[in-house]
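call fold target=VOC family protein
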Amino acid sequence: MEKAFDHLGIAVRNIDETLPFYLHVLGGVLMDRYTAETKGVEVHVAAIRVGDMHVELLEPTNRESPIARFMRQKGQGVHHVAYRVPNLEQAIEEAKREGVRFYEETLRINARGRRLIYMHMASTSGTLIELCEYP
């Protein structure tokens, strides 16, 4: 199945302090801004287009969110790489046939309708990879 780069998720302490760099220095355009309140997500998101690339700044909304835990361990920076697929269920099944494991609890629809799941980092040599499908 064809996969295409979709976005980078970047963990930040404060979106308002980080946005000027992406907007003014890199020349990005703020496409959307929202809060995901789903348990196990809890994050403010700023979606930015920089050229033909999409970046999501992710600011945790509580100390126990996955982004907050990530930043305690690794600091700010790239949290995940996302790839768009035309059919999420099919992409999951194909990957599982190749021995890829998933964080099954991450399968969900986000606040903007994107369906997604994260691959287990043991299957990806340590990189958190999201597969996503748009409605």
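return ok
The longest helix spans residues 15-25. The mean pLDDT is 95.
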